[in-house]
Request: fold
Amino acid sequence: MQGHWYPVSLAHSVEPGSAAGVRLDGRELVVWRDGEGGAHVWEDRCPHRGMRLSLGFVREGRLGCLYHGWEFGADGQCSHIPAHPDSQVPKAIRTRPYPKEVRFGMIWTALSAEPPPPLPEDAAEITPVASLYLDCAAAAALSALRASRLPPFRAGDHDAGTVFETVAPTLFRLSAGSESILVGLQAVAAERTALHIVIEGPGVVYAGQGQSHFLRWAQELRHRIETPSLNSANRPGEAP
Reply:
């Protein structure tokens, strides 16, 4: 877990000026965006009373705790304590930030203090599909993903076979003909995994019907993973 980037959300799922709680390897994190859209990933705990910062508010580029209103700047340093507005905040009062990146339509982080090796270059155009949460270990989700069949959206690619490719240790590509999706793997907990799915292609082509098409594929994949009796049956995208 220490040596890789992990996606923790689709980028469009956390809007500027908002925060969301996520889990990675059992650790509780907060993902938030400042007013300009900059992404941040911190430990989801206020250093004052331990309140979850994901329940707080974003104001003027700072994340505030809901409990006593303590506010923290983008560097994690506490910058404002409402009960003592004229006092200088000690430098020791700060949150724990984690490395972060926004690539492939996903927000990424790492559990190490220093960023892992860089992710590959971003795709030119991305259309988000969904984040799929599965009641299984990451290895089981990856095994099912590797064995799945991707049904193309456009008619000209319907007879194409599926190619599975490892783009990065936690990022995978499934392609069929001229179409492809990217799947980021998040190890939420020992028996809980999230797959963050995007289409490699522009919204003018895939928004709406294309997104719905690949969402149905993703939902079928989840059903097969969580229904052991179907594991030996047809792969996702194939007719029963």
Observations:
- Residues 78 and 90 are 8 Å apart (CA to CA).
- DSSP finds three helices and 16 strands in the chain.
